[in-house]
Amino acid sequence: MTLDEFNRLSPSEAREVLLACAHVTRWADAVADGRPYATVEDAADAALAAADPWTDDEVDSALARHPRIGERAQGDAADASMSRSEQSGVDTSDDEVTRRLADGNRAYEERFGHVFLVRAAGRSAEEILEQLTERLGNDAETERANAARNLREIAALRLKGMLIP
Asked: What kind of architecture, by CATH, is found in domain 3-162?
């Protein structure tokens, strides 16, 4: 959709578009209410600003919509399609990589109680595994901040990816 089309959506239509980027109602409402945006970059900047900070409940809501790294999101909802695209560079044809991702995901979820989240777009499976291994050593507070930061980046990138100047 073009930026102009996004700017002309009703508030409820804009909210639905934004919820596909990050399933956080307050954030989607804030970004929708900030329209019209002059540029796609302005919209992405507003998305980042509205997400800083997100509450723990908002982070949980957004995390609940993300599949594990290395697993393909199911369904044809917009957020599932975006997730599949973002993870397209993660090579799951390599059994060893798939096993290591699965083991790391399990360890992460046991330690922190939610899925491991990293901005996967543009990263190889090895880079993601390195991040996963490194972040397993974090304390809960640091890791919560990492998850929130990655969610913000993903939301802004998704919005930029769906808007045509």
From this structure: Orthogonal Bundle (1.10)
Q: Which two tokens stand for residue 164?
A: 């045509």
User: Where do the domains of the chain lie?
Assistant: 3-162
Closest CA to 132 of 152, 109, 148, 153: 109
Closest CA to 63 of 22, 28, 14, 29: 22
Contact 128, 89 (CB under 8 A): no
d(CA 156, CA 150): 10
The predicted-structure confidence for 58-108, as pLDDT tens digits, reads as follows 999 999 988 887 666 455 655 545 555 555 456 567 788 889 999 999 999
CA distance 164 to 5: 9
